[in-house]
What does this fold into?
Amino acid sequence: MTELIAQWASPYYFQIKFVHLFFVAMWLMSTSVAYRFYLLPIFQDWQRDPQNLDRARLRNWAIERFDEGAVLEHVAFPMLLITGPLMMIAGGWNPAQGWFAMKMVLVVLVFLPIEIMDYHLAHFGLNKEKLRLAGRTEAYENAIHLHWWFLVISSPIVIISIPYVIYLVVVKPY
It folds into this structure.
């Protein structure tokens, strides 16, 4: 089966690579700017006075918009999971190449768990807008706090891991 995919995909390697890189850029940039320049300052302002209703309303509005913006990220990531293996097969990459093995470790142990949690927080069980519209005030507040802590913990990991993966792919140091 792998040989059949390789025969089909090999002539389109650079087109697949373009699509992959396009979705890498979308995945990387779709929420990073919103987090750094909008969500982070709003949450920090709210944390200085959590009883302030105006700050809480702005915090709630911002996190719900952030969830909406994550749609781009959450379309891009599955596309990476499709185009990545296609490139691997078409390009003849395998885990015997150290850079590729390290990239796969990061994808499986860092990016997949983060994205699974992010999907849950933004679109599924802990979607803030759905909780608010359902009148589940306590669950809404808990979801906001959990999402905030998730972002606080995962953002530095992602900020280091994504450039490192790009380095591995471009430089292929080992």
Q: What stands out?
A: Helices lie at 2-9, 13-48, 53-91, 98-122, 128-133, 137-171. DSSP finds six helices and no strands in the chain. Residues 8 and 43 are 49 Å apart (CA to CA).
